[in-house]
Amino acid sequence: MESLTIGVFLVFGENDLWKLERARALGFTSAQMVRWPTGYFTGQEREDFKRALKQSGLQVTTVFCAYEGESYESREAVKRTIGLVPRETRAVRLAETRKIADFAAELGAPRIAAHIGIVPEDPADPVYGEVAETMKQVCDYCQGLGLEMALETGQETAACLRRLIGDVGRKNLKVNFDPANMIAYGSGKPLEALDLLGEYVVGVHCKDYHSPKEEGKFGGEARLGEGDVNIEAVIGKLWSLGYRGPLTIEREIYGEQQWADFAAAKALLEEIRAKVLRGSAP
Predict the structure, then answer these.
(1) Can you give the residue ranges of every domain in the chain?
(2) Is 147:106 a contact under the CB 8 Å cutoff?
């Protein structure tokens, strides 16, 4: 794969296989994917998806985990419901994660990824230790399939994420870097975060966001290039740190506007990519 290829994040629900061909028609060659509602393709649906993916020619670079009962409605909902942090759902979700890893391996994807939840900043917090032990299990299972496990950034600080990676101590534990999430959750400045996490980054979400105007509130997602992320600076820094992987566009809206924004973001990223490859990016 060429350096900094431009991909797209595809969300699949029911009867959504057309998205594969549409993404290819827009000129994308790679994609990250997630399945909503939760529960990955089984039976004939699974075979139909694999056939459609092969026909599209897209390469799936990351399969994201999604779990029953998750909600991003508010910060409190995120804390209570997301990922592998909540104790009440952890065992069931760990089993689901293994199934998702199996699916990723079938597709020939190199990794799975997830928001694992808001990890406690204090390593002495019992939940922190529990999450570290859970991630060891996830990474060991993925290793057996030849997969990496990537942590999505944003819900905790870069320092916390780096500490967790060190405490888990598995070489296949990596980072999917989403600068917009860091702005959304107020967890740090993206460029500074890369100083701590750059060596672990294996995937990037090209998404934009307006900074929150009130404490404890979310801001709002924006078209790429119209928010506060400064995606050109982020990509330039990633390049300087040695990142050569795909740039994956994420846009958390639906309908025709999403596809129009995918196309606009692709055009913007092509311009930035050309600058980076010429060595003129900041």
Answers:
(1) 6-278
(2) no
The structure's pTM equals 0.96
Q: What is the pLDDT of residues 158-194, one digit of tens each?
A: 999 999 999 999 999 999 999 999 999 999 999 999 9
SS3 6: strand
Taking the C-alpha atoms of residue 223 and residue 199, their distance in angstroms, rounded to an integer, is: 28
**Interval 201-244: pLDDT, tens:** 999 999 999 998 777 678 899 999 999 999 999 999 999 999 99
Q: How far is CA 145 from the centre of its chain?
A: 20
Ordered alpha helix ranges (H), 82-189? 87-107, 126-144, 158-168, 179-185
Contacts of 83 (CB under 8 A, 6+ apart): 65, 67, 70, 93, 114, 115, 116, 117
Query: Among all chains, which residue has been given the structure tokens 């079938």?
Result: 106
Fold of 6-278: TIM Barrel (3.20.20)
Q: For residue 227, how many C-alpha atoms fall within 13 Å in the half-sphere facing its CB?
A: 23
Angle of the 231-240 helix axis to the 190-197 helix axis, nearest 10:
20
Helix axes 190-197, 158-168, angle to 10 degrees: 20
The amino acid at residue 43 is G
| Confidence bin at 37 (pLDDT 50/70/90) | confident
CA–CA dist 203, 175 (Å, integer):
7
Distance CA 179, CA 266 (A): 17
